Amino acid sequence: MTESPDRRPLPRAFFDRPVLEVAPDLLGRTLIRDTDDGPIELRLTEVEAYAGAVDPGSHAFRGRTARNAVMFGPPGHAYVYFTYGMWHCLNLVCGPEGMASGVLLRAGQISVGAELARKRRISARHDRELAKGPARLATALDVDRALNGTDVCAGPDAPLWILTGTPVPADQVRSGPRTGVGGDGAVHPWRFWIDADPSVSPYRAHAPRKRRT
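Now predict its structure.
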């Protein structure tokens, strides 16, 4: 039996390109998370590009650390970080090894395993909210730092991998400023999403934290 084109794993060459090419091209692709309770599949609807050393908004802007080391490795791997002491966020490393660019997965539509995602996202009012935002996406897919460094091009043997899916036509892709990015990084229109998709998260400008007095 021949595997359908949309069910084939994305090759590493897909990720071995400039981040601004990879990011919009990820829209419509299928992310699979194999959990102990069963698989969850998600169609990507919103992403953000981060361009390493030339991007003040990137974790890798000031160089390599223990936290961001995966970003400097081969393309096609997962970079998972913990933020605000509460949430995980999932990124996919791209570009040539050593360049440290990556794509933050901001939102998606769960097509398989919604019942598993609901158990982790009990506050979601509708299924379209299960993965609406990067922290919600990671929570719904049971993603944490244990998956940091996972090869998403390895196919079914990996706990997290990505399929070709159905790419989105260029006229349905929108772009704008990244959510919550301030300073010099705020000017880049490097957030990409599928027009009018209900799972896309709302845009929020950067709001500096107020110091406690």
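The mean pLDDT is 94.
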